[in-house]
């Protein structure tokens, strides 16, 4: 069996896990401030990352120059992006935020890739990506909210669009480092720094939580976010992205909104429209078309 299918399967599973997390996290947000919940997700994951790293590789250290690079990556890619996502949702509709965040991300990853890796943008990738974009647009806009161009949502729209640019650069900036160090080591360090930089933003939120009144569902949401959505997901996603290539891998983010729609049906009894089903077919066809291309050779630009 061609090993590439293992990595494509890893991308799909991670995207599905992140999509399902919309349903899990939405329930948790009724109890936790969004930024506090994000801090718990990443902060509690840090010891697991370093424990796994120590067991698998025997050490956890990095040169100071690389540590400083990962501190900047963590500040932008974890702290900055997570807070921006929360505020984009606050200042625009969920449909707007989803579309402007998710849809352009792979496009920017493909455009910016030559800055970090020698990765070709092929005709097959373009055709498959276009079909996937049409699909994910139908999935997001085919829901009840639709796309709202009101000036009241402009700040949130700009934030969501900015997230797709910064997010693509965040993914790509890890690629040269993962050539020299494992994806596990890189992930452990930038998530640690992202958590540390996020901590000050949680001030005032801790006292608002009725910690003694937390129920099994709250703890389940935290465990799911820490162990599945962060530890397992980041390790698998980064390892798969490194093997497949950033441009191809990021198109599989389009599975996230599809999984989120299913999560809405399961958790909140939300309906699925015909347009969303059509979109799912287009998206699946596009991703299959991308994944059946012969494995590209991905070289890392020297840093």
Helix content range of the residues, please?
over 70%
C-alpha Rg (nearest Å)? 19 Å
Beta-strand segment tally:
2
Mind summarizing the main beta sheet?
Answer: 2 strands, antiparallel
- What count of domains describes the coordinates? 1
Work out the strand percent.
under 5%
Report how far the terminal alpha carbons are from each other: 34 Å
Q: What does this molecule look like?
A:
The chain is mainly α and 303 residues long. The chain is built from 13 helices and two strands. The chain has helices spanning 4-28, 34-43, 46-57, 64-91, 94-102, 104-112, 123-141, 154-180, 183-198, 216-244, 246-251, 255-268, 274-291, and strands spanning 117-118, 299-300. The protein has a two-stranded antiparallel ribbon with strand order 1-2. The longest helix is centred in the last third of the chain and has 29 residues, at 216-244. Belongs to the EamA transporter family. It is found in: Cell membrane.
Keywords:
single chain, 303 residues, mainly alpha, two-stranded antiparallel sheet, 2 strands, globular
Please summarize what this structure is:
The chain has 13 helices and two strands.
């Amino acid at each position: 069996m061609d090993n590439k299918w293992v990595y494509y399967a890893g991308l799909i599973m991670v995207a599905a896990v992140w999509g399902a997390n919309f349903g899990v996290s939405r329930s948790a947000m009724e109890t936790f401030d969004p930024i506090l919940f994000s801090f718990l997700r990443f902060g509690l994951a840090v010891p697991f990352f370093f424990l796994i790293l120590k067991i698998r590789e025997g050490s956890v250290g990095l040169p100071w120059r690389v540590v400083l690079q990962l501190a900047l990556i963590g500040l932008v890619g974890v702290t900055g992006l997570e807070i921006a996502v929360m505020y984009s949702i606050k200042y625009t509709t969920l449909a707007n935020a989803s579309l402007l965040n998710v849809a352009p991300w792979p496009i920017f990853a493909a455009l910016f890739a030559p800055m970090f890796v020698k990765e070709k943008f092929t005709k097959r990738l373009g055709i498959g990506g276009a079909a996937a974009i049409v699909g994910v647009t139908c999935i997001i806009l085919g829901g009840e909210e639709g796309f709202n161009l009101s000036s009241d949502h402009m700040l949130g729209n700009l934030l969501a669009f900015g997230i797709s640019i910064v997010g693509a650069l965040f993914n790509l900036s890890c690629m040269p480092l993962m050539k020299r160090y494992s994806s596990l080591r890189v992930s452990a360090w930038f998530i640690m720094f992202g958590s540390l930089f996020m901590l000050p933003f949680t001030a005032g939120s801790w006292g608002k939580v009725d910690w003694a009144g937390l129920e099994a569902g709250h703890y389940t949401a935290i465990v799911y976010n820490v162990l599945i959505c962060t530890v397992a997901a980041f390790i698998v996603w980064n390892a798969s992205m490194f093997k497949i290539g950033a441009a191809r891998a990021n198109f599989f983010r389009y599975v996230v909104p599809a999984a989120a729609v299913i999560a809405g049906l399961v958790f909140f009894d939300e309906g699925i429209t015909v347009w969303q089903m059509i979109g799912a077919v287009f998206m699946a066809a596009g991703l299959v078309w991308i994944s059946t291309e012969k494995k590209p050779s991905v070289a890392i630009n020297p840093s």
